[in-house]
Amino acid sequence: MTVGATTTAPPATTAGPLPAPASPKRERRGRRSGVDVRFSPYLYIAPFFVLFAVTGLFPLLYTGWVALHDWDQIMGQGEFVGLDNFVAVLTGSAFWRAFTNTVSIFVLSSVPQIAAALLIATALDRNLRAKTLWRMGVLLPYVVAPVAVALIFSNLFADRFGLINALLETVGLEPVRWHSDRFASHVAIATMVNFRWTGYNALILLAAMQAVPRDLYEQAAIDGANAWRQFWAITVPMLRPTIIFVIITSTIGGLQIFDEPRMFDQYGRGGADQQWQTLTIYLYELGWTRSDFGMASAVAWLLFLIIVGFGIVNYLITRRIATAEGKKS
Amino acid sequence: MRRPSWFVYGLLAAVVLGSMFPLWWSFLIASHDATVLSRERFPLIPGGNFLRNAATVIDTVPFWRATMNSIIVSTTVSASVVFFSTLAGYAFAKLRFRFSGPLLVFVIATMAVPTQLGVVPLYQVMAKLGWTGELTAVIVPGLVTAFGVFWMTQYLTQAVPTELIEAARVDGASMIRTFWHVGLPAARPAAWMLGLFTFVATWTNFFWPFIVLGPRNPTLPVALQQLQAAHFVDYSLVLAGAVLATIPLILLFAVAGRQLVSGIMQGAVKQ
């Protein structure tokens, strides 16, 4: 890419118009400097916009164009088929199955995750000894690649010889069929997601907690509010923007989930009966196993709409809950 | 402030142990042979097979190549993201130009758009350019991030005194010189953090490299995936691979974990 070269070149020496030979040195410098001041900022932000246009915006819009065509990965663009790809996707059962799986895994991961993150953040917010060490310990899973996490957990959740099932049996319970029972597979996959992200979210919430003025708590304590009541009446409402942020980012990530379910067994197709096939796995299968880029793009657009929809609903609900909590106090 | 009760420490200790256990477990299995899981009792101490398993992993998948690729991709992408984000962040934070407000809003808005959804055309672009299977196909889409621009804008707004820039300009320094000598040094702490986060995110990324690279020239996560496909019954091998791929990041974490923590905390307050 030539973008790097154009921006690193000093604009002051390259961008000036040639001055009349007779003009004094001073004026030349002034004019150059004017061009410099006017255009440098655009040059500095240009790399982002150029690269985003090529690798982000264009593909996103072009996906819509591909979705309206018969489009084979190898043969390329075929006939214009209008909304046929969307109809084909939406009338097939695979899409709805993948949709349900995605939402189920998303709910199973984000709800307990944010609850646990809040709890951990509250604990970290105390006046602890060796603060940084605790924080680092909680963040550790974040540096482990999701693929590695998935490999480790699909071993822990193995139907035969898995540690979790062995523990269940020791306490006298039936082993769970993690790789064939639909709901159980969702629980296992959600556990992987939670393992990686709970500590990260806890630290984000902790940062917001530390910004809450301490005398609010002292006041509440004097008024006789216990820790639980202080948490609901002060911490949660004060954390509202951060909670919304955490929920929205985990929604965007959660609905696109691919790595963990893909690695949950060695075939990577989301289970023998698509028990844990998610929308992104379905997209991949359409595009790269069946070579149908048209349908894959239709799924991409539907997924985009679903994410936007969930984002809006999430935002509205969170705002509601947090405001109601705030009012009660 | 009062020190918290043992209950708080107990809770946190449980969380930290829970964070470490899966990694310990994978090392435990990886240090035995394939039969370990079918035995009556689970292993409680590491066996002596880790190096042998690691050697098999290295023979089975192009491990060194994948490690090299991951290092190249993550380093290039982090360096580029840091440089371009600092440049753009400096412009947004400290320079006055027309449309700077709306342009910054646009940058922030793009953060909400999952770029992953454009994979089909992006793949076509890479295929047209003949980049499929090449590292460039992974590097180029990662060269800039909206998050990076936003992050540096936030930081530089308060980190660089505007008077300092004006002073440099009055002394006759060109714009880029001013950036180099005033903006860049001030950006250093935030730039390191951005670099760390970008490095971790690029290193652990799977979906796009998996689509565009193919089995012969993989990054580490892609190579790990092949390992599972090739050796699905032999968990001691698969987990040895997982351990090997995680070691570099654990080392990075041991050195820079403190910065990662404060980076998250700093980023969160500025939302």
UniProtKB/TrEMBL annotation, chain A:
Membrane topology: Multi-pass membrane protein
Keywords for the protein's UniProt record, in alphabetical order: Cell membrane, Membrane, Transmembrane, Transmembrane helix, Transport
Keyword Oxidoreductase carried by entry: no
CDD domains cross-referenced by the UniProt entry: TM_PBP2
Any Gene Ontology biological process: transmembrane transport
Location of the protein in the cell: Cell membrane
Region entry Disordered, spans: 1-32
PROSITE patterns: ABC_TM1 (PS50928)
InterPro entries, sorted: ABC_transporter_permease, MetI-like, MetI-like_sf
Domain ABC transmembrane type-1: 99-314
A GO CC term assigned to this protein in UniProt: plasma membrane
Presence of the UniProt keyword Cytoplasm in the record: no
Positions of transmembrane segments: 42-68, 105-124, 136-158, 183-208, 238-258, 293-317
UniProt biased composition (Low complexity): 1-17
A Pfam family of this chain: BPD_transp_1
Family classification: Belongs to the binding-protein-dependent transport system permease family.
The protein's name: Sugar ABC transporter permease
Automatic annotation (TrEMBL), chain B:
Main localization (coarse): membrane
Transmembrane segments: 7-27, 71-91, 103-123, 135-153, 190-212, 232-256
Subcellular location: Cell membrane
Database matches in InterPro entries: MetI-like (IPR000515), MetI-like_sf (IPR035906)
Domain of life the protein comes from: Bacteria
BP terms from Gene Ontology: transmembrane transport
Domain ABC transmembrane type-1: 67-256
Keywords tagged on the record: Cell membrane, Membrane, Transmembrane, Transmembrane helix, Transport
CC terms in the record's Gene Ontology section: plasma membrane
Coiled-coil segments on the chain, per record: none
Membrane topology value: Multi-pass membrane protein
Pfam families: BPD_transp_1
Similarity remark: Belongs to the binding-protein-dependent transport system permease family.
Protein name: Carbohydrate ABC transporter permease
Species for this entry: Ornithinimicrobium pratense
Record lineage: Bacteria, Bacillati, Actinomycetota, Actinomycetes, Micrococcales
